[in-house]
Design brief:
alpha+beta, five-stranded antiparallel sheet, three-stranded antiparallel sheet, about 30% helix, elongated
Length: about 230
Amino acid sequence: MNLNLQRGDRINFRSLLTALCLTLTLVSFAGLDPAAAQEQRIRTLTVTGRGIEAIPTTQTLVRLGVEVQGKTAAEVQQEAARRSSAVVELLRSRQVEKLETAGISLSPNYSYENNQQRLIGYIATNTVSFRINTASAGTLLDDAVRAGATRIQGVSFVAAPSAIEQAQKQALKKATQDAQAQADAVLSALNLKRGEILGIQVNGAGTVYPMYQQNFGGIRAAAGDIANSR
């Protein structure tokens, strides 16, 4: 098979951050009505606190593509299966996590000349996705291309689930403190005292994942015609 592997640029796996935002709403602050000293009235004040906790990403999610072109469906499918198996075997040997394959897809390849369609062969594709520690991702991608992957379709960076869970707790704590500080500032300006909390509502909890995607022209193997390699 004719493979043109170019390495003009290397992927730069920078240290990125995952930010988690969480909003906490505190309700119910009480005081006395100055105009009615003998009658106690319940007043409520609703404030919204915000907490953000940044954590470093340590894991990389990768999608690799295998593409093969040839004149017959049988040989194209066979070569795509061989390459996919080689890539999967490599990934298993490196003990990657969440290894999945999409399965081989086969489609006809046409040429168009003078408004006429002509069948010139077939194209087989497969996608392999996995997760690995970011520190090991660069070397593994190089090896995966050598094993048979023809393109790197996507890369994203995430934090470990345990780190995200801990960040959520810290963000919740910060949001609570922020809401209390806002309430105290308002009540102090109005000469009121804070009473019991009537209700708490947590809104908008979520994790923002940094993404790093490009066409990866620097590390790409172009699938050639099978017939040219035999």
